[in-house]
Amino acid sequence: MCENNEIKKPGEKCGVFGIYSANKSVAEFIFYGLQALQHRGQESAGIAVSDGEDILVFKDLGLVSQVFSEQNLAPLQGSIGIGHTRYSTTGLNIWDNSQPLYRMFKDEVFAIAHNGNLTNTENLRKQQMRKGIRFETSTDTEVIASLIESSLCETLEEAVKEAIYKIKGSYSLVILLKDKLFAIRDPHGFRPMVLGQKEGDHIIASETCALDIIDAKFIREVDPGEIIIIDRNGLRSQMMLDVDRISMCVFELIYFARPDSYLYNKNIFEIRHKMGRQLAIESPAEADMVIGVPDSGTPAAQGFSAESGIPYTDGLIKNRYIGRTFIQPTQEIRQIGVRLKLNPLKEIIRGKRLVVVDDSIVRGTTSKKVIQMLYNAGAKQIHMRITSPPLLFPCYYGIDMATKKEFIASYRTLEDIRKYLNLDSLRYLSIEGLVSAIGQSRDKFCFACFNGDYPVAIDEEMQHEKDYLKKQDFGSMDKMPIR
Hints:
It is built from 17 helices and 25 strands.
């Protein structure tokens, strides 16, 4: 187990993409769609395509551009396909856990890819193992696949629907059959999923930015509890699951979704800009300039500037051409790891009073280093403004967050955190202010990481499993990327 784990940012689980075309080869479209969804996961990528008879899968560890080339895309010939880019919140980052998964139901093949996290994984896994079923991976996606594989239903479509009734938690699923494409979103709508069209072809994606990159038209969001089936007869939709509480993860709007994507028909950049404006209203500061911690802090910093009248400047430059940094054995080398990603513009900030806007503080380790860099660069004062309320509770729905005892806000007061970070002032956006900036009803979102109100009950086993995986998976905490 690694020591001195450093929590940077919450990690989103995955991005999914699917396309059904009447006559085109779709592998390259999936490739570009996955590149647009790269921010949702950087550990592995995979594509599965069907030519109407067989399904072929290619996947590997690494970024989309590292996994795929002209040579390995060329054999992926077929007019139906799905793709996946992964960030692991359950299961180790190994090849076996990469997706899509390829499985058999009776004599039919299928492939499955998943964004989210089941809350009854362990109970289902034990039930399946008691039936003699063995598991090859440690992912909850394989649990879903095993339910389909072992079903006694007559058809694969019926087996898919039967499995969906048994799983709980968050899931946006794409499932590829030899002649069909399924898209399924959980009844709470935790993770986003959208439907698009291009020249009569139907496209499914985690975010609208993946539609834009292939010049597809956004049609609508896939509704919570909806299953979409696309085949040669066209698209059919069914509200298969009862929807009692829509609970989209609010961190999609704060941090995860790309700023050029849309959720609830609202542009993410504009929402974050309004978060910054709301911060300036709730928590003004006397300062000479506003800077954002790139990238998710930038729109909010610009909003803070617009509302407050304090000039906005790019004070931190992000290196976009590096991967994650590994935990290093000395403090000096760990500091270099942070500087690889962010570097202050000394001439701009020297002698200035700064408002620094960021999306969240997890354990505070990285924030402390960024603040120290700014002081070392000559900042006179630093006032930090955060576009989320304090993080207090772990997420069980597909976001890699710390356990409760590791959140700095769960055991320190606001004043304690300010002193620890060596700030002149620190303020968080209120839940009410966050809701106001989003411009949607509060009851459409999950705020569990802020208030502990979990929309889906959490099994005690899952809580223990999360703590265990944090320790065994070399503390995924060290792998949370600054994006």
